[in-house]
Design brief:
The chain has 368 residues and is of the alpha/beta class. The protein folds into two domains: 163 residues, Glycogen Phosphorylase B (Rossmann fold); 167 residues, Glycogen Phosphorylase B (Rossmann fold). The chain has a seven-stranded parallel beta sheet, with helices on both faces. A six-stranded parallel beta sheet has the order 10-9-8-11-12-13, sandwiched between helices. Helix 4 crosses helix 5 and helix 8 crosses helix 13.
Length: 368
């Protein structure tokens, strides 16, 4: 019998879910956990049924292009759940796909809320405080239990009938791969999806070239999350930029040029100064600017409610040069920058650890 099926469609979700699996396996070695996720979940001890992280997409246009694939996968998962009847299904982030799956399981009569036997848990809530606030009604209808990673999120679900618990942010439990070193190289983080990397990397590489003209000894390191991204970056190698697996990084970093994803919060928690560059499909960007209700893209800036990290978006003139200019301000005043970002890091730790009652593993363990 299967105790738990985990669905994680992105590399960050794969890593967070893997941390949960390791904790559950330590407590219950015989627990049967299957996953539709990625290599981190497999390494943690889950039986990987399908690598969904190789098909992660972001944005309206990208999702529409891949709709037939995701529709077929949803049908397959529903059939798998019908046959193997896991005690619980844990949906990790990836809301566009996972909410459709929760709805399918409900309509198939498999979930608890539709009279079935499978408990549906959502770990890491969709950011309804930023956009698509009405999603809370769908979550309340199709999901049994919601574990949030930000303490303020609970309040956004108070008008719906849903069990919501703040379970702590996973980055506070996991070892941070990044640390600050005033003499270290630059850290480049173009993203964890190949489509995003192809848009953001040219901006970061161009900014690095401009910085290197001022600092000839400057080097940069890019931790690559998978082989596809590694191969792409290797083919577009720039002088002074080196590739590395995240697990092999040993040195600290003097600064970071990065996209606005989960890794940017790891950088912020490490107190590393940096600059954020964002570039999406033009249609996705235009629609997003109209719908998003928060003043920042970076979660660190959102949590702090101030622009600790400069955000250079694609609608500014000469985005590459602006990123380089912001980074040069950091590199030219390392002590001043360090103090500013260290204080930001301490604030973030305080915000993310407030009001926590139990861990995500404690929360999920109850249902599987």
């Amino acid at each position: 019998m299967v105790d738990l099926l985990i669905i994680a469609g992105e590399h960050s979700g794969d890593n967070h879910a893997a941390h949960l699996v390791r904790q559950l396996k330590e407590r219950h070695p015989q627990m049967n956990i299957c996953a539709i996720g990625g290599p981190a979940l497999k390494a943690a001890g889950a039986q990987l049924l399908f690598d969904l992280t190789q098909h992660a997409v972001v944005g309206l246009v990208e999702a529409l292009k891949h709709y037939p694939f995701f529709k077929d996968l949803l049908d397959w998962i529903v059939q798998w759940v019908r046959i193997y009847n896991p005690k619980a299904v844990c949906l990790v982030d990836f809301p566009g796909f996972n909410l459709m799956l929760a709805q399918r399981l409900y309509r198939a009569g498999l979930s608890l809320k539709s009279g079935g036997t499978v408990c549906i848990c959502q770990y890491i809530a969709p950011q309804i405080w930023a956009w698509k606030a009405k999603r809370r009604f769908a979550i309340a209808k199709y999901v049994d239990h919601l574990g949030t990673i930000f303490p303020f999120e609970k309040a956004y679900f108070r008008d719906v009938n849903l069990d919501v618990q703040f379970v702590g942010h996973p980055l506070l439990e996991e070892k941070n791969p990044f640390r600050y070193d005033t003499h270290g190289p630059l850290l480049l983080l173009p993203g964890s999806r190949i489509s995003a990397v192809k848009r953001v990397y040219p901006i970061l590489a161009g900014a690095f070239r401009q910085l290197r003209a001022l600092h000839p000894d400057l080097i940069a390191i890019i931790p690559t999350p998978n082989e596809e991204i590694h191969d792409y970056l290797r083919k577009h190698a720039e002088e002074g930029i080196f590739l590395s697996k995240l697990s092999e990084i040993r040195n600290g970093f003097s600064g970071a040029l990065m996209s606005s994803g989960t890794a940017s919060l790891q950088v912020a928690l490490a107190g590393i100064p940096g600059v954020i560059a964002y570039r999406a499909n033009p249609i996705t960007f235009t629609v997003g600017k109209r719908l998003v209700k928060v003043p920042y893209l970076s979660i660190a800036n959102i949590l702090l409610n101030r622009p600790l990290y400069a955000e250079c978006l694609q609608d500014i003139s000469d985005q590459t040069s602006v990123v380089a200019l912001q980074a040069e301000a950091i590199l030219s005043s390392p002590e001043l920058s360090r103090q500013k970002f260290l204080e930001g890091s301490q604030e973030l730790y305080h915000l993310l650890s407030a009001q926590q009652v139990f861990t995500a593993a404690d929360w999920l363990e109850q249902y599987c």
